[in-house]
Structure formats: structure tokens, C-alpha cells
Amino acid sequence: MTRGLFLSFEGIDGAGKSSHIALVAQLFRDTGRAVVITREPGGTPLSEKLRELVLHEPMDPLTEALLMFAARREHLVQVIEPSLARGDVVLCDRFTDATFAYQGGGRGFDWQVLGQLERMVQALPDGSLRQPDLTVWFDLDPHIAAQRLASARVPDKFESQPADFFAAVRAAYARRQAEMPSRFARIDAAQSMPAVGADVSRVVSDWLQGVAA
Ligand code: TYD
């Protein structure tokens, strides 16, 4: 049976990742694969309720981190693991790297404690840890991201944070990449939308050849 594949898409708000997920989905469908597109926080009815709370209610940093992981646990059990077991391709708009970036980097929450929660929530029956097979990181200067967001929409709790919050989020993504370089692909999201799209397609296609080989 074909092995399931798990890809996550990350970056600060305004980096433009969401527009490119459909492109990657098409790339996989063209090879005959079934694709599940999902997101975090969210992806199940309960996790979407938690998303509403966590994106709009002010709360203590530990509460925020725990709710992110609670939503993730439900999402893994209900959607991600069954899809991977079927051999599907799961494309997830944000995953645990976002918790390290936003709650760890942005909020300054303890990195080691996040690691403990990660190990608890993402443990597989064989003792290994569920992680994305590939993480596409849309990296962008927070000032450019802020300009893009200013013209876009009503900001949620995170989007309304100041530029230094996003500088810390970006630095935390870089730290995650340094800790787990083999699964990360960094995209220069300052480029034009078509150029970013071309980079994403190339990165995913090259990676897929490596997986198939
Ligand atoms: P986002 O994925 O950007 O969705 P949309 O494009 O609909 O706004 O929004 C999710 C927000 O949640 C984003 O600001 C990052 C934040 N977030 C965390 O703080 N921690 C997490 O673990 C995750 C998954 C997201």
C-alpha cells in the first residue's frame, strides 16, 4: 500500500502560505494521490471550537499552549492518523512548529515544556513521534508581512500583535529548522506570488522524488 505523507505549511501571519496549499494539493492529485487539506488549530468540529476560543479570547500563556495541544490531539486522532493510515496525503495549514513559534517565540513560553507536550500529544503506539514528513516554511520579514496584512482583513488576536512579536515568532521558526533541518524547506516569501509558487512546486516535487527513490 502507498505510504501516507504528512506535509505542514508554516510562517508568520501575512507570509502568504495558505494560497499555495491548493497548488501543492493539485501537484499530488496529478500523481493520483488522495489529498486531505486541513488546518490547525482546527480540523475537527471540537478543534474548530477550540480555535474560535484561542484566536479570540485573552488567556494565560499556559492555557493557550494547552488548548493548542488539546486541539492538535483531537485532530491527530480523528483526522491525521486515519488519513495517513489510508495512504492519503495530508496537507496541514500549520502544525506544532506554530506552537513553538507563537507560544514559544512570540509569547516566551518555556521551550522545554512545549517539547514535553509535543512528546505526549504526538506519541505513536511504537514509541516514535508523529512529525510532518516535510514542513514548507514561508519565511518573511515581519515588516513586509505587516504591510501585506494591513490591507487585508480584520486581525485576530495574533495578527494584531506588534512587529517585535513576529520577529520573535520568525526567530523561533528558524530555531525549529535548526533543530530538525531534514524535514524543513525554507521558502523566500518576499518574492512575488508566482515566484513563491514556483519555489513551492520545485521543493515539493524534488522532495517527492527523494521519497519515491
Ligand atoms: P492562520 O493559520 O494564519 O489562519 P488564517 O489565515 O485563517 O488567519 O491563523 C491561525 C493563527 O493561530 C495564527 O496567528 C497563528 C496562531 N497559532 C498559534 O499561535 N499556535 C499554534 O499552535 C497554531 C497552530 C496557530
Written overview of the protein:
- With 213 residues, this protein is of the alpha/beta class.
- It has a single domain (5-212), classed as P-loop containing nucleotide triphosphate hydrolases (Rossmann fold, 3-Layer(aba) Sandwich), CATH 3.40.50.
- It contains eight helices and five strands, in the order βαβααβααβααβα.
- The protein has helices at residues 18-29, 45-56, 61-86, 96-106, 111-121, 142-150, 163-179, 193-212, and strands at residues 5-11, 35-39, 89-93, 134-139, 184-188.
- Strands 2-3-1-4-5 form a five-stranded parallel beta sheet, with helices on both faces.
- The radius of gyration is 16 Å and the shape is globular.
- The model has no long low-confidence stretch (mean pLDDT 95).
- The chain binds thymidine-5'-diphosphate.
- The site of thymidine-5'-diphosphate has 14 residues, from helix 4.
- Thymidine-5'-diphosphate is lined by residues 13, 18, 40-41, 55, 68, 93-94, 98-99, 102-103, 158-159.
